[in-house]
Amino acid sequence: MYFLYLLLVIAVGVSFIADRGKTYRAIKIAFKKFVKILPAFAAMLVLVSIILALVPDSLILHYLGKGKMFEGVLMASFFGSITLLPGFIAFPLCGILLKKGVTYTVISAFTTTLMMVGFVTFPIEKKYFGGKVTIIRNVLSLFIALIVAVITGIFFGEILR
Amino acid sequence: MKYAKAAGFIAYSFFLVFSFLKGFEPGKKMAFDLGYFSLEMAKILPPAFILIGLFEVWVKKETIEKHFGKESGLKGHVGGILLAGTTVGGLYVAFPVAYSLYSKGADIGVIFTYIAASAICRVPMTIFEASFLGIKFSIIRLLVSIPLVIFSSMLLGKYLTSRNYRIRDGE
After folding, report:
1. How far apart are CA A115 and CA B59, in angstroms?
2. Prediction pTM value
3. Residue B47 to residue A147, Cβ atoms within 8 A
4. What is the pLDDT of residues B82-128, one digit of tens each?
5. Which residues of chain B are within 8 Å of residue A108 when distances are taken between CB atoms?
6. Which residues, at least 6 apart from A47, have a Cβ–Cβ distance to it below 8 Å?
7. Distance between CA atoms of A3 and A11, rounded to whole angstroms?
8. Can you tell me the ipTM of this complex?
9. Which of A81, A111, A122, B9 is least surrounded by CB atoms within 10 angstroms?
10. Is A16 at the interface with chain B, CB within 8 A?
11. Is the backbone of residue A71 left (phi > 0), alpha (psi -120 to 50) or beta?
12. Interface probe with A: pick from B95, B99, B126, most Cβ of A within 10 Å
């Protein structure tokens, strides 16, 4: 996070020294783009807060913690797709799952869908890519997540061929 | 349709306020989560957009076309992954950045690779992941998903270009 601010200060500083007009223009462009997409972000925030209340960590732990592979992967993909957890909440949660004996396969399905498939980011993605492409990309991501999960399982000896 | 959305927001806000007045726990949790995530976005988005603005005025089209454009092939995709490695925030930040790259001539397949990579290839996040799930897990995840991402992005890009698809500027 601090990297972002460091980069920002350096970039704005250098830009300002090099060309003031361009810098002001850049900030104006930034502001306009930000304001334009703000409603979509607000929609995403509403969705996130609702989903997180409906699908709290305890629920995820309960359903994924059962340790059954096939249902586990399905549930993991489902929960991962609909939620948006920041890394510092998601990974400790996965650590707990691991300790509970949940397979790497299931955890892999969870993390990849969590990161790549965006139900709550749909309003934003839709504004740039349109509804159809957003759905295509998310479905593709889901398939990728499943393939990664299966191969992870094979490498960890959970899925024996 | 716009009014329906606005009405929805207002209704939700009333719901949250009522939750505090009536002590409705799930509603209160929603309000806290809303506040928390709003704060997170407020910390990440303005800097990100300013960087995008600077990118728009300073970086030349030729530069982007050369490294991320149609002709760059696999190199463009690798470049997209490297760029995504440093992206903060994930998917929701990647979308506006992706559009800016696209508007400067990046190939659409590379854009999809960039978006997916900004979801799963971020360096600080991967390090954090490895600390909980082990390096083996993270390495397998990366080694398997990256080729899949590049392959599917190339396919999707080709398909969309053949249909004259354009990315919109957040309309």
Report:
1. 29
2. 0.91
3. no
4. 999 988 888 999 999 999 999 999 999 999 999 999 999 999 899 99
5. 137, 141
6. A119, A120, A122, A123
7. 12
8. 0.90
9. B9
10. no
11. alpha
12. B95
